[in-house]
Design goal:
Pfam families: AIM24. This is TIGR00266 family protein. InterPro entries: AIM24 (IPR002838), AIM24_sf (IPR036983), Trp_RNA-bd_attenuator-like_dom (IPR016031). This protein is α+β, with helices and mostly antiparallel strands. It has a single domain, classed as 4-Layer Sandwich (Double-stranded beta-helix). It contains five helices and 19 strands. The strands form four sheets. Strands 5-6-3-10-13-8 form a six-stranded antiparallel sheet. The chain has a six-stranded antiparallel sheet with strand order 11-12-9-16-19-14. A four-stranded antiparallel sheet has the order 1-2-7-4, with no helix packed on it.
Amino acid sequence: MNAHEIDYQIYGEEMQYVEIELDPQEAVVAEAGSFMMMDSDIKMDTIFGDGSNQDTGVLGKLFSAGKRLLTGESLFMTAFLNIGQGKKQVSFASPYPGKIVPIDLSEKGGKFICQKDAFLCAAKGVSVGIEFSKRLGRGFFGGEGFIMQKLEGDGMAFVHAGGTMAKKVLAPGEVLKVDTGCIVGFSQTVDYNIEFIGGIRNSVFGGEGLFFATLRGPGTVYIQSLPFSRLASRVWAAAPRGGGKDKGEGSILGGLGDLLDGDNRF
C-alpha cells in the first residue's frame, strides 16, 4: 500500500486548520464537513469508502465502505485531486476548538487506532476502517469510546483533539487510566481494555462515567481534554427548554433585561 506523499502546514491556535499541498495527480481524502478552501485546478469528487481499495471489485468496495457504518460515519468520503500542472493547496478545518494532530503512519508501523469521530483527513491510499476488538468487555461496556477506527497505510493522516491535547509515551508495562471519551488515539503497540470503576458511591454520586479505559505500554497515547460528547452535553444542559425565550435567569439584569429587549410579558 503506497499512499500519496503530501506536504502540509497547520495554522492557528485554538481553532486550527491544516493546509495540504498537492503535487499534480496527488489527492487527499476527508470526512464530509471538514473542507475549508482550495485552489483552482483541484477536482472534488465523492467516493465510495476511503478510496484505498479501488482495485478490489464491487464487493471489496462495499465491505470497505460498510465498515464505516459501524462507526456512525457516512458510506462516502470526499477526494480532492490536483488536476493542474503545479502545486495546489486545499485546507481542512477543526470541527470545534482543539488541536490537529499529524500522524505519519510510516512511523507508527503502518497502523494507528483513533476515536471514531477524531479522523479529519488523510493522503489518498490510507485505509480508514473499524478496529474490531477481541475482548467482549470493550464492545458491551465501552460507552462513548469503545468503537475505535483504525488508520492503515504508509502516508500522512490528521486527527482532531478537542481542547488541550496531551501526548503520553508509555514504557513497556506502564499503565494509564483514561476516561473513554478523552482518548484521541494510540499506536498499535498499546494494549487497551475497558474497566468498571467500581464502588456504588463512585457509580451513583461520582459524576463520572461507569467505565474507563486502561492503556498499557509500550506506545504513544494522545489524550484530549474536551471530548465532543462532553461539550455537547454541556451545551444541551444550558439550552432553554420548552421552546420559550430565555428570561435571563442567573444574569445581573434578569427581568430588566427583558424590558430593555422589548419583552414585557412577565
